[in-house]
Amino acid sequence: MVFKQYLDPWLGCFSNDPPWSGIPGRLLTGLPESPEEMNISFSLYTRETGNNSQVISAINSSTIQNSHFSPRRRTSFIIHGFSSTGKKGWVVEMCLLLLEVENMNCIAVDWKEGAKGTYVCAVNNIRVIGAEVAYFIETLQKLFRYSPREIHLIGHSLGAHTAGEAGRRVRGIRRISGLDPAGPYFEGTPAEVRLDPTDANFVDVIHSNAAHFPATGFGMYNTTGHLDFYPNGGTLMPGCNDLLLEMKRIGIWDCHHSRSHEFYFKSILYHTGFLGYPCETYEDFKSVNCFPCPKQGCPMMGHYADKFPYKLKRVNQKYFLNTAADPPFASKCRTSVTVIHVGKVIALGNTKEYEIASGVLSGDKVYTKYLDVEIDPQKTKKVEFLWNKTIFTLLWARMGAESVNIIHGEDGRWTRYCSLDRKRSVPIQNSE
């Protein structure tokens, strides 16, 4: 392999020396394109701009000084990935939603021209995009003495590693959120070329399309932050199996890959809807070896992950959760429901029925089921016991539940509901 260099007057020198290429898993060729070829732009959204934006430039710094950028507010940069854009779609929608919940500066980074070629070319290009973001941050430091501790980088796919490159160049960035960081040419590579926990004071990651054998995907499976979240196991997302839905998207995996920024978007609105449980594997999580939360609590996946007091306890902390298949995707709580003396279906609240047991049921037996419910069990006033007869059930047979115990996964609290009767359908009152 011939090693070459590319020199940019503003950003410095880029080479294809190892580890950028020529190492196992990263046998790339070529160098990044120039910022001019990629037509990189930064669009500022604030509460003053409304649904519009102001194009600002670090090279022409007067555009920043004459804009609505305020050094008294925090700043988020939103960075798209391969075959995407920062001029419309989820990037702009994310900025506008963030502004609804916080008075801030939100900057949408567009590098569409550099992201629309081959994937290998786009992989090379993110080094220049990351350098441009870093140069922009350095310009803010010079203009306003603006601290990197006020900056949050949110990147999807290749945009996640772009954020990592910016964080490698500018130390002390407050937070980077990696939304399904791209896997090909990054999985198993040195930390220098991908997002890693040293790129910001706090790095949180959502894995939604992890390429974990035997499945394939666009995302990374290995941990790459302080808190790594694996919703639904991190590889295949519920609700992405609709054929018509897939045909509308770029490729069969795009729905799963895009779920990461959709989860993050909804997490801004649903503060407590994405509770993650510490676990080593999804299999352990499904077998409820990680239930309920430990004494130190559990973090929320997404926008409010930084509220977790133990987020910096160590790097590569793994958390699992299940989500709903449809928007808003949130699950209120993971709950353990135990029916004392025979159970079939328990209706929590009046929104949905949850199956506890099926098949041949016997009396004087305890049935337990772990559920990811879409309501808050702590607000439940009554639990209704239901069961269905089959053609083999004796006509005079009756069943009921003596009591129902519910353990809340977030804090380990438990509530007991005692039966007032043992008829076919029984309201079970709370006796906590």
Describe the protein.
There is one protein chain. The chain is α/β, with parallel strands linked by helices. The chain has 2 domains: 5-321, 3-Layer(aba) Sandwich (Rossmann fold), CATH 3.40.50.1820; 333-430, Lipoxygenase-1 (Sandwich), CATH 2.60.60.20. It has 9 helices and 20 strands. It has helices at 35-38, 62-65, 90-101, 112-115, 119-144, 158-169, 243-247, 254-269, 282-286; strands spanning 5-8, 12-15, 41-45, 54-56, 75-79, 105-110, 151-156, 175-179, 202-206, 227-231, 277-278, 317-321, 333-340, 345-348, 352-355, 366-373, 382-386, 403-408, 414-419, 426-430. The strands form 3 sheets. The protein has a 10-stranded mixed β-sheet, with helices on both faces. Strands 15-14-17-20-19-18-13-16 form an 8-stranded antiparallel β-sheet, with no helix packed on it. A two-stranded antiparallel ribbon has the order 1-2. The longest helix has 26 residues, at 119-144. It starts with a strand and ends with a strand.
Instruction: Determine the oligomeric state from the structure.
Output: single chain
Strand content: 15-25%
Query: How much helix is in the residues?
Result: 10-25%
Using DSSP, what is the number of strands?
A: 20
Helix/strand-derived category reads alpha/beta
CATH top-level class of the largest domain: Alpha Beta
Q: Rg from C-alpha positions?
A: 25 Å
Low-confidence stretches: 243-252, 341-345, 422-432
Q: What is the CATH topology descriptor of the largest domain? A: Rossmann fold
Shape: elongated
Largest sheet: 10 strands, mixed
Give the spatial strand order of the biggest sheet.
4-3-6-5-7-8-9-10-12-11
Terminal Cα span: 71 Å
**Count of helical regions:** 9
Query: In the CATH classification, which architecture of the largest domain applies?
Result: 3-Layer(aba) Sandwich
Number of individual domains: 2
CATH superfamily heading of the largest domain: Alpha/Beta hydrolase fold, catalytic domain
Secondary-structure element series: EEHEEHEHEHHEHEEEHHEHEEEEEEEEE
**Could you tell me the mean pLDDT?**
84
